[in-house]
Amino acid sequence: MSVSSSAVRPIRWAIVGSGGIARRTVGDLRLCPEARLVAICSRSRERADAFAAEHGLPLAFDDYTALCASPEVDAVYIGTPHATHFALARQALVAGKHVLCEKPLTMTADEARTLGRLAAEHGVLVMEAMWMKFSPAMQRAVELVREGVIGQPRFLQAGLGYPVPANGPARFWDPALGGGALYDMGVYLLTLAQMFLGEPEEVRVTGQMRPDGVDLAEAITLRYAGGAMAQLATSIIGWMPPRGWLGGDGGAIDFQEPLFSPGGLKVSTGRPPAPPQVQQLDFPREGAGYAPMFRAAHQAIRAGQTEHPQHPVAATAAVLDLMQRVQALMAVERDAGASAGLGAGSAPGAEASPPGARP
What we know:
nucleotide binding, Dihydrodipicolinate Reductase, domain 2, 2 domains, six-stranded parallel beta sheet, 14 strands, Rossmann fold, oxidoreductase, oxidoreductase activity
């Protein structure tokens, strides 16, 4: 399917994976007039048929190769566990399907760059589903910073986390699926830092990592050329309110909850000794919050782009590079702690938690 051939009709989507993400995706795709949701793909024929019947989809697949070969599908939304993303996206791109894939796009930066090259070769779009970037609140925050409303950005602080039950989704606890806090929630925080501060010169991290590589919690400090800093924290063993703020030398932006799809911004401007001027900007969420991202993907497809200019593969790969650095630093800290008799992480007793169990 060529990009030009899709210009005269709705873009026909298939969802890959039938879990909670898929259910949220259905409603938001249907908010977009240019989209037509036509198919679901699940490893289970029973689940695929049930999902299709529940949501009125004409096609149900339990064979991903058959989905990729279908002439009735133009684009796929991949909502499966992290570690499966690369292989599924690669197969779809080679088959000529546009790909919008849940974050993280892949497990490594090199894998992301490979997908970017394949998309260019086959003339189709590949894009990480970083819906935070396309939320109206974040779009406005970027504009405010570009307009100099808060002056030169100097400091970003953000957190996101909650205690995941031991019997919670396997994507959090299974190392084979890319389990841990960083790849599920930390990706939002590092993307946020990239959006407003760019690429860091120095990375420091402390936290807790199990022997099998599943990270339970981390606090990350980033330093940038010119002196700007970011402090980020994420966890799957404790609560961290999903909020953040960006401070500049002329004001600050408070990203109100939830950070990944803010309902509002509180913008404070001015310099002491004068009191700050405060403006509240509200952004009601549309559907589950994915619709602006889907519209952006449609615009890129219609324009014949193989990457979205606001979230190109290079940006995704840079964040993945950073995530790999954070993981490596966490592993060094864990191993040093183990040598000192502190167990699997920086907290005593961490090694007592069996794989898959909440510490």
